[in-house]
Amino acid sequence: MTVPLLKIGVVLSTMAMITNWMSQTLPSLVGLNTTKLTAAQGGYPDRSIGVLPANPEESWQVYSSAQDSEGRCVCTVVAPQQSMCSRDARTKQLRQLLEKVQNMTQSIQVLDQRTQRDLQYVEKMEVQLRGLETKFRQVEENHKQNIAKQYKAIKAKMEELRPLIPVLEEYKADAKLVLQFKEEVQNLTSVLNELQEEMGAYDYEELHSRVSNLEERLRACMQKLACGKLTGISDPITIKTSGSRFGSWMTDPVAPEGDTRVWYMDGYHNNRFVREYKSMHDFMNSDNFTSHRLPHPWSGTGQVVYNGSIYFNKFQSHIIIKFDFRTSSISKSRQLDYAGFNNAYHYSWGGHSDIDLMVDEGGLWAVYGTNQNAGNIVISKLNPTTLQIIKSWTTNHPKRSAGESFMICGTLYVTNGYSGGTKVYYAYSTNSSTYEYIDIAFQNKYSHISMLDYNPRDRALYAWNNGHQVLYNVTLFHVIRSEEL
């Protein structure tokens, strides 16, 4: 609106200047400066200038610079009497003056038309601005609605995170950290409530960043809680029914993300073929697999796949072999000194299960019996690359009395049998070199367990139960030591 109004101001100013010029200059053109003020028709004040001849008998006058009812400038000229000599110098002067006045009148009309056009433009602009104002108001209202939806989504995310707090408190990962998380969640919840009452009180991006950061910290804390003491085992989940009464199956606990291959080994001796299924889905629903031929038959069901290689006990020996699936070759083999083999110190179900290899959060382990330990269980931590023993622990539990065993967070858990009613009743901690008797229910659905191993990535037990491949979820309890607080 500023530019059109400025144009109108210029036009009106120009008209005033022209009017002023006519009122002051026209009389001087004819040598007269007599001014008189009269009333125009209609009651409007009319400022007119009379131009009188030197001799009254010549009888001609010029009136100019009058205003009509709409405020426009009108010039009026009254010609001299017909009897006047047309060659009179004043007649010529009057004719010239008349032409000038007519030209000025036309210019003023043009300016008036332009003024009217600019006024129409201004009115049109006013209508458009009102429309824009309405649109801006609608955009503002829609923006508030979108922000409200975003805040609602954040609050929903917070509701998803909230159940993690009691979980952290239940497992007691870190008392101070849990308290800090709880306070932060409460603060964020309070901020969200305030935002709902007053839009724009907090920056959405910053709030979203804080929520994401808290979520990452909670996830990291949950990873820290992966290690703990076994407190419960779920009911079994039957994945598949296949193979003979004895065997083993597993997934790689340190495989890259997206690698969900399943490895399957039927029988406990005189077999050297390992099946590879592309995924758990393929394993459950199809017979599509790749077969790998090992250079030697395995002994027992204590094999384990770890970081792309399979570790197994060579049949009728106390030699451990590391076979790389990528190169289809033996990458390392080593004799496990003093370990019993060929059914010397097997589990209570037999099956040449003298040496049981297993993996937990800490790495690769071997569980076996020795003459030096009177046939009781020996636990050895192995270097997965060289197969050398890093450290060994001797227990007081007879190997032949154990139904099966598995490692979780550096603790060996032993079952009291392999058939009928079964439970986990003995635990030996390599972290403290102590043992205890426990009582954790363990449902033996198909009455003959010949393989039981823990997978730290899935936090589940893999079992071979009388020709059924079964999974058990586990519950761990994190114990906080005083030095961790």
TrEMBL record:
It comes from Tetraodon nigroviridis (Spotted green pufferfish). GO terms for cellular component: extracellular space; synapse. Residues 226-478 form the Olfactomedin-like domain. GO terms for biological process: signal transduction. It holds the Pfam family OLF. The keyword Secreted applies. InterPro entries: Noelin_dom (IPR022082), Olfac-like_dom (IPR003112), Olfactomedin-like_domain (IPR050605), Quino_amine_DH_bsu (IPR011044). Residues 1-16 form the signal peptide. Residues 94-142, 178-224 form a coiled coil. Disulfide bonds join 227-409. It is found in: Secreted; Synapse. PANTHER family: NOELIN, OLFACTOMEDIN-RELATED. Keywords: Coiled coil, Disulfide bond, Glycoprotein, Secreted, Signal, Synapse. This is Olfactomedin 1b. SUPFAM superfamilies: YVTN repeat-like/Quinoprotein amine dehydrogenase.
